[in-house]
Amino acid sequence: MTTWSAQRTRRYEKLIEAQEKAQSKAEQAEAVLSRYREPLLGAAHNLQARLYNIVDLTFLATYLHC
């Protein structure tokens, strides 16, 4: 009975360790994502605004005189 209980305890400890490791990886991925999300969205918005100015507001026709 003692051997069976010890084996079951070891399996349970390994399961908990694997779950903690997976949770840690998920937290790291979320940290990286949150670190780069806002700057990337800002850069995409600025690019969209510049392209809109060039295409729809005839920026090149107005300011390029060469």
List keywords for this structure.
66 residues, mainly alpha, 0% strand, rod-shaped
Describe the structure concisely.
The chain is mainly α and 66 residues long. Helix content is 89%, strand content 0%.
Q: What is this structure's SSE topology?
A:
Blueprint: H1 2-55, H2 59-63
Could you characterize what this model shows?
- The protein contains two helices and no strands.
- The protein is mainly α.
- It is rod-shaped and about 90 Å long.
- The mean pLDDT is 88.
The end-to-end distance, rounded to whole angstroms, is 91 Å
Number of strands: 0
Shape: rod-shaped
Low-confidence stretches: none
Q: By helix and strand content, what is the structural category?
A: mainly alpha
SSE sequence, one letter per element: HH
Provide the helix percentage.
Answer: over 70%
The largest sheet is: none
Number of continuous helical runs: 2
Mean pLDDT level: 88
